[in-house]
Amino acid sequence: MKILYSWLKEFVDIDVPCEEIANRLTMAGLEVEEFERIGEDYLLDVSIPANRGDCHSILGIAREVSALFNVPLKLPAEPKFLEVEDGMDVEVLSPELCPRYTLRFIKGVKVGPSPGWLRERLEAVGIRSINNVVDITNYVMWMLGQPLHAFDADKISGKVIVRRAYDGEEIVTLDGEKRKLTVNDLVIADERHPIAIAGVMGGEESEVSFFTKNIALESACFDHISVRGTSKSLGLRTEASIRFEKGVDIGITKFASDIAVEMILKLCGGEVGRLSEFYPVRYEPSPIRFRPERFNRRMGLKLTPENMESVFVRLGFKVDKDNDIWQVTPTSYRRDISLEEDLYEEIVRIVGYDKIPSTLHERITGVVSPPPEWERRKIIRRKLNSLGFSEVITSSFIPVQFDSSFGEFYRDQVESIRVINPLREEESVLRLLLSQALLNLAVNNVRWGYNDFSLFEIGKVFFKRDKEYIEKEHLGMVQSGRFIYSWDKEIDASFFLLKGVLERLFNDKLSFVPAYYSALHPGRSANIIYQGEIVGFIGELHPDMAKSLKLPRIYLAEIDIESFSLDFFKTGLVREPNRLPKLKRDIAVVVPEETQSIKVIEIIREVFEGILENYELFDVYKGPNIPEGMVNLGFSLDLRAKDRTLTQEEVEERVSYLKERLANIGGRLREW
Amino acid sequence: MSPMELELSSIRSEALKEVSIADSLETLREVEIKYLGRKGIVNQLLKELKDVPPEQRPEIGRLINELKLELSREIETKRTLLEEREKVKRLEEERLDVTLPGIILPAGRLHPLTLIIERVEEIFKGLGFTVVEGFEIESDYYNFEALNIPWYHPARDSQDSFYITDKLLLRTQTSPVQIRVMEKTRPPFKIIAPGRVYRRDQPTARHSPVFHQIEGMAVDRDITFADLKGTLDAFAHALFGDEVSTRFRADYFPFTEPSGEFAISCIFCKGEGCSVCSYSGWIEILGCGMVHPKVLEVGGIDPEEYSGFAFGMGWDRLAMLTYGVNDIRFFLENHPEFLAQF
C-alpha cells in the first residue's frame, strides 16, 4: 500500500526523518518495499502482512508509527452536520455475512471533477480520479481503511436489501463485465435485483455519474471469509475486497461514513438525509490472559513488567493486572490478536527484534539417525560419481509425449498422476519413471550440442495404484556417446557399459532377463531382477524413437531403489585376505550360439563351487576354427581354496566334470 | 710359426674384425655362433688339435683357448655396447610429445542442490539437528489446515497449489513435515526437512513451479525466541562466513507466533546496495518463528509444557546465493555447461 509521508503526518505527531520511519516499520513487520522522494514529500510502498488488515490505511500505519516511536496519534474530530428527514430503508437478510451495515442518503449533490489537491493525492498513491463523489469514497478508504460505496439513489427501486445471491443470478459490475453469482455470494440488492457485489464491486446500473443528483452512501462491515470466497471465485480483486478479506474494523463503519459525508457536503454540496444502520450485536474485544514471567521465559528476554505494560499502553490495549496473571484487551481493530503468544509478538515487535539476544539451546535432544533413504542416496551418489556418472535433478513434471514411455515396467497395474489445474501443459503430468525425465533431458542435451553424457538421478516417481497415490524413490541413468575419449583411446557408451555400472553398484546381486519395452530396442532390453522381483530395466532406446527424437544411440536404466535396504549398500563384516596360493586357469567353452552366457556361467559357478574366487569372461568369439552355429567363450578363472593349497589334480578333476556338464547343453571344452 | 699358428692368427684377426664391424645384436650373434658355437670354428680347431704333432699340442691348445676367451670377451664387450646403443635408440623411439593432452577418465559430479544440502546438513548436524523427509503429495489438511491456514486464509493466495484431487495436492511448502514429525516423535527433537515443493507460478528467473525448501524445527521445554535467533545466526555464519551481518525482523506466518524474517547482509555488495538485494543491502534467506500453540496442539504437544521454533528457507535460493546463479530455472534445466562447473 502506498502512502505519502505528508498524509501520514496529519495523523501522527512525529518529527523524525522519513527514512527512520521506513526502517522501523520494516523491522516491525510492515516492510517498506519502496521509498521514494517526491519533491518535499516521500512516497512509501508498504507491504501489509495477511493478518494486518488494520494497517491498510493511513490511520493504520499512523497507529503503528505512534506505538513504535511512542508519539501521540491525531484523530480527526467527530464530524457534525444537520440531517434532513429523507432516507432509505435497509434490510439485512444475512446478518452472518454482514454484521454491520449503514446507508446514508444525500440529496442534491453536484457530481463533477475533484479539486486538484484531491486528485493529486489519490494519483500519488496510485488511484485513478473518477469524479468528486467516487474520489471522496476512495480517499476515505485510503485514510481510514473503510471501503465505501456510493450508489446513484435514483437507480435504486424501493429498499436496500443485503442478502445472498440466488444461484445463477447475474449482475453487470462497474467494469462492464457480466458476473454470474451463487448462493455463496453476498449482494446488495434493491427490490428488483442486485445492485452491488458486497465488499467487492458495485453494479454498473447504479454507478454514480455526472448526471447523478442523489446518492446513497454505503459503509459496512462484511464477513472476510465470504468476501474472499466471492473475490476468488469471480477472479475479481479490488481495493475494497483486499481490505474486507483481511478484516475491516467494525468500530469505524459509521465514523468513516460521517467523515465522507462531511467531505461530500464541502466539495459536492447537497443535504444529508438520515442514517439507516443495522448493527445488532456490538463487537467487544475479549480479554486475553498474559503472564509476564512466561513471556520472558518463552522469548529469552528479561523485560520488567513495567516495560511490558508500557508497550500495551502504547498500542492502546487495556491491561488488568492481578499479580502474575494479567488480562489484556486489544483494540477493536486488532482482530489478529486472540492468543497470549500474539501479545508476545506485539511486545517484541515494539521493543524491536534486534533487542532479542542470540543464544543456543544446547540441551542434547538425543542423536537420531537420518532416515535410511538419506544415507542410501549418499552412498549411491558417491559410487556413481566414482564410476564416472554425474548427477542431475530434473522436474517432477514430464512432457506429455513421454507420459507412458517405459510404462511396461509396471505391468498395467498403475496410472500416471495428473494435476487437475495445470498452468501449462508442461506442468500437468507427474513422472511415472525417471527415464521419462532423463529421455527428455537427453533430447535437450543433444539439441544443445552435447552428445556425450553419462548421467544419473535419484528422485521420486509418482503413480496411482488401486486408488492409492504412491511416491517411490528410483535411480535412473542415461548414457550416450563417448564415455572415455582422447586422441589415444575411446570407449563408447553401450548396453554393457551401463550394465557393468549397475553390476558394480549392486555388488553383482542383480540378474537380467530379456524383456519387452515398446520404447526400447527389442533385442537390447532387459528387466532387472533382485530376489525374484522385477526391480528395474535397462536397454537401448528403440531406433524408431531415437530417430523421431533426433537422438543418437541412447542407453537407459532405471531401478526402484526402495527394494534395497541401506544395509545392502553398507559394508558389513569383512573377511581376512586369503594368503594361500592362487591357481589361474583359462578355459574356452564352445556352445551353441543361442545359449545365454549366464547358463554357462551358472555351470562354471556350480562346478567350481567353493574354490572359484573370481571369473572373467574375456572373450566372445565366432568365426574360423569355431564350427558354424557355435560361439566360443573364453573364461579366466581364479581358483583358490579357503583352507588348503589347491592341487592341479583337484582342478583337473573339476574340469572333467565341467566337460560333462557342458555336454548336457550341447557344448564342449575347447582344448588349447 | 707353425702353419697352425699362422692359421690361428689369421682366424683371430678375421674374427676380431667381424666382431668390430657387427652393427647389430643379430649380426653379433651370428659371429658368435660362427666362431664360438657348438659347430663353430673354435670347436672345429679343437677337434683338429689331434692332428697337431704331440710336442706342439699344449702350446696350440693354449693358443686356441686363449683365442676362445679373447673372442668371448670381445663379443661380450661388443654386445654390451650394442645393447646400450639399441636401448638408446629404443628410448628415442619411445619419446612422447609430453604436451599432448592426457586421457581424461570420466569423473562424476554432484548437482549443486546436493552440494548445498550436504553443507546445510553438516552445519545443522553440528547444532544437534537430524534430517527427516516428508511426502510431496500431501493432503490439504497437512499442507494448510493443520498449519493454521484454513481454506479462507489470505496466506493461501501466495501459495497457489497444484491439485490432484479435491483433497490432495502437491505440497506448497515443507512445513507439513512439522505436523508429521510431531505425530510420530515426542519432544525433545530438532529436525531439518529438505524437500521438493510446488506452486502454481509462472516460471521466471526468480520463480519456478517446482522448487525446494529446507524446513527446520526444534521442540523442547523452554526453547526460546532467542534460541531461534542464535541458531539462525550460527547457521548463517557457518554457511556465508563470519563477516556477514544478520537481521532479524518481524513478519507474519500463520503457523508461527511470534514470527520473523531472517536476512543476511548482501554478500555481493557487502550491504552497499545492488540489484541482487534490490538496493536494500539485505538478502532475506528465511521465514521463521515460535511454533504456533495451535500447531503444537494439532501435533499433540502441550504448548504450556513445551515450546519450539521453526524455520523454512529456499534451498534453490541458498544455491543461487552461494554460486551467484541468477536464474532459479537453471537447477532443473541441467545444462551440461552449468553442471560442469560444480
How would you concisely characterize the structure shown here?
By secondary structure, chain A is α+β, with helices and mostly antiparallel strands. In chain A, 29% of the residues lie in helices and 27% in strands. Chain A contains 18 helices and 30 strands.
What does this protein structure show overall?
The complex is a heterodimer of chains A (672) and B (342). With 672 residues, chain A is of the alpha+beta class. Chain A has five domains: 2-69, Phenylalanyl-tRNA Synthetase, Chain B, domain 1, CATH 3.30.56.10; 90-278, 3-Layer(bba) Sandwich (Phenylalanyl-tRNA Synthetase, Chain B, domain 3), CATH 3.50.40; 288-354, 2-Layer Sandwich (Phenylalanyl-tRNA Synthetase, Chain B, domain 1), CATH 3.30.56; 372-569, BirA Bifunctional Protein, domain 2, CATH 3.30.930.10; 583-670, Ferrodoxin-fold anticodon-binding domain (Alpha-Beta Plaits, 2-Layer Sandwich), CATH 3.30.70.380. Helices cover 29% and strands 27% of the residues of chain A. Chain A is built from 18 helices and 30 strands. In chain A, the strands form eight sheets. Chain A has a seven-stranded mixed sheet. In chain A, strands 4-7-10-11-12 form a five-stranded mixed sheet. Chain A is elongated. The N and C termini of chain A lie far apart (91 Å). The mean pLDDT of chain A is 94. The mean pLDDT of chain B is 93. In chain B, the strands form two sheets. A seven-stranded mixed sheet of chain B has the order 1-4-5-9-8-7-6. In chain B, strands 2-3 form a two-stranded antiparallel ribbon. Chain B has 342 residues and is an alpha+beta fold. Chain B has twelve helices and nine strands. In chain B, strand 6 and strand 7 form a beta hairpin. Chain B has helices at residues 3-21, 25-36, 41-48, 57-93, 112-126, 140-143, 176-184, 225-240, 293-298, 315-323, 330-333, 336-339, and strands at residues 130-131, 137-139, 168-170, 189-198, 210-220, 246-251, 256-265, 282-291, 307-314. The longest helix of chain B is centred in the N-terminal third of the chain and has 37 residues, at 57-93. In chain B, helix 1 packs parallel to helix 4 and helix 5 packs across helix 10. Chain B has two domains: 3-93; 112-339, BirA Bifunctional Protein, domain 2, CATH 3.30.930.10. Chains A and B meet through helix 6, helix 9, helix 11, helix 12 and strand 18 of A and helix 5, strand 1, strand 4, strand 5 and helix 8 of B.
